[in-house]
Amino acid sequence: MSIFVDIEKNLDGFRLNMQLEADNIPIALLGASGSGKSMTLRCIAGVEKPDRGKIVIDGQCVFDSEKKINLPPQERGTGLLFQNYALFPTMTVRQNIMCGARRSRKYTCVDALIQQFGLEKLDKRLPSELSGGQQQRVALARILASQPRILMLDEPFSALDAFLRWQVEQQMSEVIESFPGTTILVSHNREEAYRLCQKIAVVQDGKTHGLREKRELFCHPKTQAEAHLVGMENVLDAQQQSDGTIYIPAWNVSFTPQNTVPNVRAVSVSAHAFTLEEPPSDYLTVNGCITRIMHGPTDAIVLITPQQGSGVLHWRTCNTSLQRDQSIRLYLPLDQIHLLTE
Ligand SMILES: Nc1ncnc2c1ncn2[C@@H]1O[C@H](COP(=O)(O)OP(=O)(O)OP(=O)(O)O)[C@@H](O)[C@H]1O
To answer: Which regions span the lipid bilayer (predicted)?
Structure first.
């Protein structure tokens, strides 16, 4: 099973220009609100029509603007779990799941799914008589009953509270693991995407630079959008000088990078990357003054104004002896600075 997507769609003030290609592995579209993640899923499912492009599922072309192919949603073999689950409100749990089975004509799977999702005692209830987590299980069972080739999950935990979210995520991870086709998860939660998927595409302003191995993406973000989405606290403009050195105006520091990357526009640094002790490898030094300390349950984020710099440095530390207005010298190993090209 595989999916190939190369589509364009112009909406009022927004342009989707999305390319994706994946085999039967779980992948995530990670992006800020309004970046075009849901629209991508809706185009794949056939509930929205792209202006141009092609969508191929499992070798079958389901949309091709040039060849005028546009299969209706029920013929695409896709299962889309909406953010609000979209259950039929006047049908019982069993009837909702039967609707999915009608598409696949595999009615025998209904009882197995009711059992798998622990819905035996709820099967005669209406959706309005269920909790958010139970509704989500019914919606997932209904989708799996249709035996889709692609499973698409649009922010599947957004309607759940934090505790239930974790329980449901564990069950979802089992469903994804046993699903034989491609799963596409849409999320703006990086940790959720990391736990559930193998590859991640960062979506920004309707575009993506393609799928990346999740570890590679988190360890080496290449763009400012990627750096923000993987949780880098320091993302700063940078200037590449003709001699190859990089100048960071916000911190008023320069350094010679360990590897040559053309067209560096910015850098990102995790707040964990700084040390108080001189590191053994190449590093740069930042002198500054502590302007704020924000204590969390396990550590603190310290905001520092660098000497002669115009910006802020974010440092995460467990050191409890720090004081506001204190002068400080921090070391940053050069291999902790990610060079970003846009
Ligand atoms: N029917 C529509 N008509 C015009 N613009 C739309 C329509 N549907 C969505 N949009 C716009 O398209 C853009 C992408 O929307 P989309 O729902 O794909 O974002 P998203 O990344 O899924 O965001 P979220 O995480 O908030 O759900 C947004 O700017 C949205 O306002």
So the answer is: none
